[in-house]
Specification:
alpha/beta, Ubiquitin-like (UB roll), Rossmann fold, nine-stranded mixed sheet
């Protein structure tokens, strides 16, 4: 028998031993990695650990090969604040013995705006998914009040507010939005006491273009403080009402 043949045999023996050893490893811990934990605080590591232990009792102490990773992953993906999740097992060695762990990697949903005062306060993300308000963390996002259903927020407000957030001028100017009973918008700017009467959300790109022109050209030397309302709901004109 050649040295090459002996080496191949020893390799298979070693692999077989390693596989048998790994099959004996049990889950000793649940490790959670929240990939964007610096920016958002809707999900906490302790919450995920408790969720796993509550919904999948016996996880700690169970052989790694017996863990139903797909089932755990599917369950976590249903949580409101979770955008994506990956669940897998890993083995850690402290130099004396090996330990098995269940590893959960979480990507949180990122809120685009917050709805208040409509009977149910919630956040909405870029995919139109809602998240309940949490006292733990209040992200700095645009606030919408008034008569706002989930459908109206998803179909009408999400494109409009995404447009605001992606425009440096508008995001610095618009502070809050109010929706009346017939779906017309009023906006409160960060600077000045005037109210921007926006009308319905249709043609919002044109209305914002006109509004920006007013502030950057018509009000370039100031003067907005003389007005109580700025009406941009008409396509080709802006009507300002003095105090």
């Amino acid at each position: 028998m050649t040295l090459w043949s002996i080496g191949i045999i020893l390799l298979f023996i070693s692999l077989g031993f390693s596989i048998k050893q790994s099959q004996k490893l049990v889950c000793a811990d649940v490790k959670v990695d929240i990939t964007d934990s610096i920016q958002e605080r809707f999900v906490r590591s302790d919450d995920i650990r408790q969720w796993v232990r509550r919904n999948y009792r016996g996880t700690i102490g169970m052989p790694l090969t017996s863990l139903n990773l797909r089932k755990i992953e599917d369950g976590l993906r249903k949580l409101q604040s979770v955008e994506d999740v990956a669940v897998f097992t890993n083995v850690y060695d402290n130099g004396v013995r090996s330990f098995g762990s269940l590893v959960v990697k979480i990507k949180q949903r990122e809120p685009v705006f917050r709805v208040v005062g409509s009977g149910h306060a919630f956040y909405m993300d870029k995919y139109g998914k809602t998240m309940d308000w949490s006292p733990r963390y209040t992200p700095r996002v645009l606030i919408v009040g008034g008569n706002v259903s989930t459908e109206f927020a998803r179909k009408k407000l999400l494109p409009l507010i995404t447009y605001i957030n992606n425009n440096s001028f508008l995001s610095a100017q618009i502070d809050q939005i109010y929706v009346n009973a017939i779906g017309e918008l009023s906006m409160i700017p960060r600077v000045g006491e005037q109210i921007i009467l926006f009308g319905d959300p249709e043609d919002f790109q044109i209305k914002f273009r006109n509004l920006k022109a007013l502030y950057t050209e018509g009000f370039k030397n100031g003067g907005w403080s003389r007005y109580k309302t700025i009406n941009v709901e008409f396509r080709n004109q802006i009507v300002c009402t003095k105090k």
